Amino acid sequence: MNTQDFKYPIPFVKSSGTGNDFIIIDHREPFIPESDQSEFARLICRRRFSVGADGLILIENSEKADFRWQFYNGDGSRAEMCGNGARCAARFAYEKDIAPAAMRFETTAGEIEAFVLSAGGESVKIRLTAPEDLRLNIPVSLGSTEQTLHFINTGVPHTVLLVNDAGMVPVADWGRKVRFHEMFQPAGTNANFTQVLPGDTLMVRTYERGVEGETMACGTGAVASALVAVLLEQANPPVTVITSGGEKLIIHFSITVEGSERQLDLAAGIFLEGPAHETFEGNMGPEALQE
Question: Is 88 among the catalytic positions?
Answer without folding.
Answer: no
